[in-house]
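Researcher: Here's a chain I'd like modeled. Treat it as a single chain, no partners, no ligands.
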Amino acid sequence: MTNPAPPLIELRNVSVVRGGRVVLHRLNLRIEAGEHVAIMGPNGSGKSTLIKTITRELYPLYSKNSSMKLFGQESWNVSELRSMLGIVTNDLAAFYSRPITGSEAVVSGFFSSIGLSRHLEVKPGMYEKSDELMAWLGIAHLAERQITEISSGELRRVMIARSLVHDPKALLFDEPSNSLDVFAQVELRHTMSKLAKSGIALLLITHHLPDVVPEIERVIFMREGRIAGDGAKTELLTADRLTSLFGCPVQVTTQDGYYHLVS
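Model: Modeled as a single isolated chain. Structure tokens:
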């Protein structure tokens, strides 16, 4: 009998300070390996701070009563941890402003770098893996295109390929549909569904209800740096619960497994 995989995330009484104030308040959270989870909340609820804490851009306050484990470990070399995570953020895409091809941007994911510099040893197999991923995501035509010349939706999918190229155990999406037009949002959601079906763990941070693709079954609400709800999406994505979360009256509709917010 094989031992079960340790949880992806296990937080116990975790608090985080940013800009001199507590942004996350004594969070208790456990997300299992391979789970697909959406974390939702209004702007300023602490969602992105949670992501930055997971990726070790921020660190919790020390307390003898708190702990934070990722993949079952409390202490990590940051570069080793990030090799196990694929991260898709708008912040990262903004750094890719100099001339670089789509393929080079994807290959840079092997090194967690912004583009490819001369001192990096790029092996032929890395480009092969990049080509395979871009074809799988339907963006093979972007391999030789300059990323400064492609649409924001195409760039987002290039960033997804970049996040996958080193075979991570989990993907973290931080507000992935922000700044995308309607067509690009639909394409992104199809991509997230495809990724979820492939078996990789998916952690989605969003305040856009349609981003919660059908394969995501668990939803966590955050408000003012605290967990305000945690459970099945059928229980949480209701008009009453979302009205309470966002602080304004809303209605909810569903179609083809997607939820939509009507204000």
